[in-house]
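Lab manual, section 2.4: Encoding a predicted structure.

Procedure: take the sequence of the chain (275 residues), apply the prediction step described in section 2.3, and record the output as structure tokens. A sample record is shown.
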Amino acid sequence: MTETVLVTGATDGLGKAISVELARAGATVLVHGRSLERAEAAAADIRAASGSELLRTCAGDLASLAQVRSLAESVTASAPRLDVLVNNAGIGTTDPGGGERVESADGHELRFAVNYLAPFLLTRLLEPLLLASAPARIVNVASAGQAPVDFGDVMLEHRYDGGRAYSQSKLAMISWTFDLAERFAGGGVTATALHPGTYMPTKMVLAAGVEPFDSLETGVRSTIRLIADPGLDGVTGRYFDRLEEARARPQAHDPDARRKLRELSERLVGLVPAE
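Recorded output:
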């Protein structure tokens, strides 16, 4: 594998494990962390586990849209090409916040901000690099835990629940994946989303006090397949449950809901003027 792959949230859990496998396969891995110190520490671990020197680090706190923009600028400036963008970084139902509602640096509900708005903006900003590198892939790590986006209370200011916040952000991610497939149609960039595994032993699952069900290896295998399997060349606009194609919750397949989400997202991240 000679591709250049950006993995967000590569400092622990699934992102780190994916990065090890990509590095072992010979990919140039852009290791992203919330801070450069965390990214560099993870890169040292990945280097030791894989024996690869084809590692570069990048940083940005995805709870800040300004830092997302800085991350995109640094990647664009340092990477001559980007063959795969893996939007993996995310937060779970409990931490941070201990189950209470928390806002991002921009005043948005934190799970919606980190799990969805940040990758939405990052992908749009990296779009020119992805198109220039085509054929390229976008792989969005979502979840089988999905809840419809409440357009009347997207930021869940009323009756907040961490599980609902997480699930809403993940359905938004899948809906946006279908939108991306249409946006890039004919441009040589594909977009897929997946539920990598159920309750893998990651930090977010353990923080929620949930007993692990699937192994981390299950998630790695499922995600690497979407990143690198030549049998999936050209496959786009699909959602997978582990290794099998699946159907997301109905709202993700609703063109009107997708349009509303896209227009809302563009306003929230500043790609178009706020009304």
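Check your result against the sample. The chain has a mean pLDDT of 93.
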